[in-house]
Amino acid sequence: MLPVAETVLIRLIRIGAYGLEDYFLNIFRDLGLTEKSYHVLCVLVASKKRQAYPSELSELIGTSRANMTKVLAALERDGFVLREGGKTDARRSLIKITQRGVNAVNKITPSIAGPVGNAFSGLSDEEKSTLDDLLRKLIVSFDEAKYSADLNF
């Protein structure tokens, strides 16, 4: 029998993710980036050495490796990142943020503060904290379930 409560939760999470993506689409488009591109730049700015491998970025951003390849190609084309190494295999290259990329993050971040706040304006601080805790717990649960499924094959 299909677990109805869990199925409804999956549907709600997917609708929520779609709603966020749809909400931010035009905001980021007007700023000259995609949401995923912006998040890649933010992750690189926040990392100690301001660099990461494409596979790491893919996991941290929550997108497929194939899509990350497209995101990185656009960021590289626009001069926001550099690719080092990986001459024969792009997945082995190291992605480094350029000063232009850092400047873009510094310029764009204040512009999205309002829309980000508006996206969560229906939640109290306590509800946001609870949602954060639950989503983190859910991500761990996904990882554990995936690992367990991988062991069964």
Produce the secondary structure layout:
Layout: H1 4-31, H2 35-46, E1 51-52, H3 54-61, H4 65-77, E2 81-84, E3 94-97, H5 99-119, H6 125-151
Antiparallel strand pairs: 1-3, 2-3
Helix pairs in contact: 1-5, 2-5, 3-4
Name of the CATH first level of the largest domain: Mainly Alpha
Rg of Cα set: 18 Å
- Name the CATH architecture of the largest domain: Orthogonal Bundle
The overall strand count is 3
**The CATH topology of the largest domain is what?**
Arc Repressor Mutant, subunit A
Q: How are the strands ordered across the major sheet?
A: 1-3-2
Assess the beta-strand content as a share of residues.
5-15%
Q: How large is the count of helical segments? A: 6
Choose one word for the global shape: globular
Share of helical residues: over 70%
What count of structural domains? 3
Distance between the termini: 23 Å
Main beta-sheet strand count, sense and barrel state = 3 strands, antiparallel
Fourth-tier CATH superfamily name of the largest domain: Winged helix-like DNA-binding domain superfamily/Winged helix DNA-binding domain
Q: Which stretches are low in confidence, meaning pLDDT under 50 for 5 or more residues running? A: none
Output the structural class: mainly alpha
